[in-house]
UniProtKB/TrEMBL annotation:
This is 2'-5' RNA ligase.
């Protein structure tokens, strides 16, 4: 079973992205019933949950709540079958991704290279992968009006399956407030 380490946004950020999420889900006929938009950092196959929780809490303990920049580049992840908006690849989120990746490799987890990871905000899931998706993506790039929104990340979680609303959260990691 796949487990996901995800970053979650605060309520104001979720409200700011809600209109874009509804519009893109409708245009691409995607399933918009995901818990909330999230940023997937790592995907792991059958990890030891206790060991994973310990490593993630150690990596995230020094960090406080931070902001990420959202670009207007829309793309589809074929691996996860999700509709995503690309994030600006700099700042705290990149540092956390590299630290998390290094610590997970050090503790024997099988993870991808962080340079191969595209940081993105997941808007919707596909039940099936449409054939004409690339054509629709190029047409809808100009319709997005996100204009470099700033979103606030308030915490991280370990999820079982992001495609199911029920019983997905395994562990919560709140960030410090200064």
């Amino acid at each position: 079973m796949k487990y996901y380490i995800v970053a979650l946004l605060d309520e104001a950020s979720n409200e700011a992205i809600l209109d874009t999420q509804k519009l893109m889900s409708k245009k691409f006929r995607a399933n918009k019933n995901i818990p909330n938009p999230y940023i997937a950092l790592e995907i792991l196959d059958n990890p030891n949950i206790e060991k994973l929780t310990e490593v993630v809490s150690k990596v995230l303990s020094p960090y406080k709540k931070f902001k990420v920049e959202l670009t207007n580049t829309l793309f589809v992840s074929e691996e996860c079958k999700t509709l995503n908006l690309k994030l600006d690849n700099r700042g705290y989120i990149k540092k956390i991704l590299y630290s998390l990746n290094d610590m997970l490799k050090l503790h024997g987890f099988n993870v991808k290279d962080p340079d191969a990871t595209v940081l993105s905000l997941t808007l919707a899931n596909f039940n099936y992968y449409p054939r004409d998706i690339k054509k629709k993506l190029s047409e809808n790039q100009t319709l997005l009006n996100t204009e470099e929104k700033t979103l606030k990340v308030t915490g991280f979680q370990i999820w079982k399956m992001p495609h199911n609303k029920h019983e997905i959260k395994l562990k919560d990691f709140e960030l410090k407030v200064f």
